Amino acid sequence: MMCLKVETCYYLTKNCVVVHDCVFGNSYSDMDLHWEEDLRMPFFQQSNGSRSIHNVDQGVTTIMFKIGGVESASSLTSIESKIQKVDGVDSITVSPLQGQIVVKYVPEIVNAKSIKEAIEAAGVQVTEFLEQEIAVCRLKIKGMSCTSCSESIETALSMVGGVKKAVVGLALEEAKINYDPNATNTDRIIEAVVDAGFGADLVGSENDANKVHVKLEGIISPEDMAAIKQSLESVDGVNHVEMSTNDGKVTVSFDPDFTGPRSIISFIQGTSTCYQASLYIPESQRDTERNHEIRTYRNLFFLSCLFSVPVFVFSMVLPMIPPYGNWLSYKIHNMLTVGMVSRWVLCTPVQFVIGRRFYVGSYHALRRRSANMDVLVALGTNAAYFYSVYTVIKALVSDKFEGQDFFETSTMLISFILLGKYLESMAKGRTSDALSKLTDLAPDTACLLTINKEGNILSETEINTRLIERNDILKIFPGSKFPVDGIVVEGQGYVNESMITGEPTPVAKTKDDRVIGGTVNENGCFLIKATHVGSETALSQIVQIVEAAQLARAPVQKLADQVSKFFVPAVVLAAFVTWLGWFIPGVAGIYPKSWIPKAMDEFELALQFGISVLVVACPCALGLATPTAVMVATGKGASQGVLIKGGNALEKAHKVNTVVFDKTGTLTVGKPVVTSAVLFSRISMEEFCDIAIAVEANSEHPIAKAVVEHAKNQLPKHKTRTNNHEPVNDFEAHPGAGVECKLGAKTVLVGNKRLMKLFNVPVSPEVENYFSDNEKLARTCVLLAIDGKVAGAVAVTDPVKPEAARVVSFLRSMSIRSIMVTGDNWSTATAIAKEVGIENVFAETDPLGKADKIKDLQAKGMIVAMVGDGINDSPALVAANVGMAIGAGTDVAIEAADIVLIKSNLEDVITAIDLSKKTISRIRLNYVWALGYNVLGLPVAAGILFPIAGIRLPPWLAGACMAASSVSVVCSSLLLQTYKKPFAYSR
Asked: What DSSP string runs through 350-394?
């Protein structure tokens, strides 16, 4: 056997699920380690490949070393003990499977170089080491209009010294930046965005959820505030304090392991009786920015209409209904009329005040040698406006000039574009509706119990959910929501977890069961102990993962990125060619004069066609096609119990044609039970069980736990016996076979037939028959040998999940092949595969062998999805095109996976693939909408139908089409909100 301990590496790359210390695993289950409920770690935030992450608020740095030379589990303890002795090292995790060592340390006490030297002194070769600290911040970006804008910001950020990676999301209008805090800071990063011509506000760091905002009321001098800050900074667990003296607000970052928001407020309150400290809940910055953007575009549109509607009436309506419009033709001087002056006066504030944003955007775009939608709008409106100004001046100085102004073109064009931006901003706000609904699931208040040492309830207090601290005892009434994740300490009933897991059937909960924040207590009254609060809750982690996924750029977006590079220059060239194509033939008399509308000449007709070409083309719709669909799909997936970690995973999943399943905990329930135990020697059953308990007691593997539980049931007084038993010594794991140890003077082996053969332990025909009989029934057999003789064996069965056969059948109907890869023996694997309908089986495969099988399938041209649940599956999950991790309850994030199936239900494998297919289809449809407007609109705007049917697209109408294209793309993405699971699994 191999002794391993499962831990989660925070802040590491997605393939870092690590192996460390002692947890049971062996060949008969192929180290099919199952994540037990009490051992699973919560979600974590990926750093996108960074080797070291600096936690700005907590002052603890996590760094990863690539290593070689760790060949056996026995060397792990030596490595850990030596590095743990280094002053300043908080924790160490060794992963021989991934070849990594992860160390958390306090940089004020020790540096990374010293830790590297300690690792090498322990006899481990460090093959890769990146000595840098990485902090993460998020910015709200203002002023982006298309893909070229996001690319420009990414380029500007990448040029800042110390910035390691920057990702800008167009639809989310946010940027996530990984940077070295020793080389730069957030002020410089924001300055780079501003220099690129965009607005930027700091949204926050990764640990904003572990902050409390406090409002201080009363007369507080700056000296008092400084004293409060100094006192707070001395509190254990407080990492950072920010003061706002003007409005008496304090923001405190804290470590939930040491303190909490309620304790912090109590501490502040206790420092003086001159003022009151209370919780202050600031409005969500994202919601504030979104509402501000919507209000801004709405106000600009209405203000523009205030001027553009009269201009439109003066130009298009009144001249057609004499005598009401005759006054517009009154000549002021020479050929200058009242109508021309009125239109000029009304158009000017629209062009230069309301339309100022287009000038600013164009300036910054041209300064960085790129072009965007603002450039097209500015060119089109300026061409119409300044030509109209020319006609006004010409009419003023000439008594014979008869020309037409286009002031209505400029004003109507800007008004329609602002209307489109207003509708687009409202539609974009709805793309994250599913995410907002998840965020709002947690209740605002909770009932906190005060309990004495005897367990008696002293008081019940209603508090704000944000004030809950770890280990608080909360009372949950029937019909109420659970405010945080916790463990039931008293009570029983049913809980509706559909809002988190998508599973509508209420789940029975009793003492020691886990509950998830945001779920609903259907009946019964519960007392729960808070175990995960703030950013640690499943709800917060789901939101963080989905937000990260929405920010990530899907590969399919490359098309829009490539097109955007030459889109605007191509449109400008097309507009110029269109103008020449109509102006030159008109002057040359190639087309009849009757084609030219009354009060126009060849130049004016050609100019209108050119302006229409400029404004009908919209790069915004092209840039929004992918990110809006990804935003809606990832949010919808989360509400359905499927966490998709980015557009890349979403895109790859739709191509999957082969699904590889692990067995234990994936196709099976993962909680095996002993079906029989037999003796093959004169040893008594009590002694057999006693030895099994002694050897397996420290293991968390489900098979080992099943053996121990069975043995305990056979020995009601096992505690007295094991306490007097000889200690276990010389414990040694034999990967793929079992474990060897000394129990007093006895040599004990626990494992499969391969282990017996390795130590030349004879296996009698009786034992062989027991093996074969149970393997035919899909049972795993574990042998226990003492001093070279088989003393007994147990048969363990792991029931197949009830939905497994249906899922395999449904995948077959989708032309997707199913394969099982397991470390269990061939007989058991074949029996399970036959039961669920899988024809292709690979058994007795170790963890790295699973990854090799994946690569072999990929070499044959297959797109492979791997579905697994244990640490032994992590290499295969990383190797697969799409890794799907089985999760459960609050601990659903297995970081090696691209997709997490929250409910641990195999049906969601189909949901993930089907949602991916629907999303990619929607993205392609969005591209059809975006490109369709341009493919159809550009020729019409250029006048291709004018000679045939007399149809032309006025510039203001072309602007309306441009605005409609962006709105239609966003609305198309919003249709993903109506997604339903495949009908076979709808409940």
From this structure: IIIIITHHHHHHHHHHHHTT---HHHHHHHHHHHHHHHHHHHHHH
